[in-house]
Q: What sequence folds into this?
């Protein structure tokens, strides 16, 4: 498999672990999504 | 052309990262005890279940948000709350737009079956959600929401169905989620 696919896979796993386990990241993403939804729905 | 392709791939990877991050949070919240910010959570399990006499809800003046779980479907979310004349109320905005309707399905579900549990300051209360339609009580309730959250919640917006307001009535009040 191409090396770039492995890189993307590792990055995505890192993203999942980061949003789930690094304090504050989930809240930040949540606020960002809330802002976007409010803008779109408003 | 090569640069354009690389830019396209980089943009695609960024979008993929965003989608994966949000997807992970949506799934994680669904199996959690309570919501995670804007993401709906699972049933409210932790916390003392308060029964007996109706509480003095005046303490809700100082509560910014509460967690609300419907019994059917058993999902929880974070909502605004306001107290007025000894009763508590929940508000839901963006109900007049298509995206708002997709985003906020709990008010429609609550109107079908208003049985709910709310968790406030770590304590759980069984309630029945009853939708409030324009009437005498609405002036005071909307004024309290506007005062508390600094947002424009008016009886006119409720009448236009842009904002839905529910009373969190006692669970034994033999009411449904249908409007009154």
A:
């Amino acid at each position: 498999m191409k090396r770039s696919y492995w890189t993307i896979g590792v990055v995505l796993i890192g993203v999942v672990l980061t949003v789930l386990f690094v304090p504050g990241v989930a809240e930040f993403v949540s606020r960002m999504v809330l802002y976007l939804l409010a803008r779109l729905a408003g | 052309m090569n640069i354009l392709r690389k830019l396209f791939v980089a943009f695609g990877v960024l979008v993929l990262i965003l989608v994966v991050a949000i997807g992970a949070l949506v799934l994680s919240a669904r199996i959690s005890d309570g919501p995670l910010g804007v993401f709906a959570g699972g049933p409210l399990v932790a916390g003392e279940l308060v029964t007996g006499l109706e509480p003095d809800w005046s303490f809700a003046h100082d509560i910014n948000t509460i967690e609300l779980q419907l019994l059917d479907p058993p999902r929880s979310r974070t909502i605004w709350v306001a107290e007025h004349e000894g009763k508590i109320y929940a508000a839901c905005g963006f109900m007049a737009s298509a995206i708002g309707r997709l985003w906020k399905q709990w008010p429609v579900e609550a109107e079908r079956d208003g049985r709910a549990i709310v968790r406030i300051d770590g304590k759980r209360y069984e309630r029945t959600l009853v939708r409030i339609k324009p009437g005498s009580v609405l002036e005071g309730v909307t004024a309290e929401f506007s005062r508390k959250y600094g947002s424009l919640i008016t009886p006119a917006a409720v009448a236009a169905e842009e904002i839905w307001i529910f009373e969190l009535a006692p669970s034994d009040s033999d009411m449904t989620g249908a409007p009154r």
Observations:
- Chain A has one domain: 3-41.
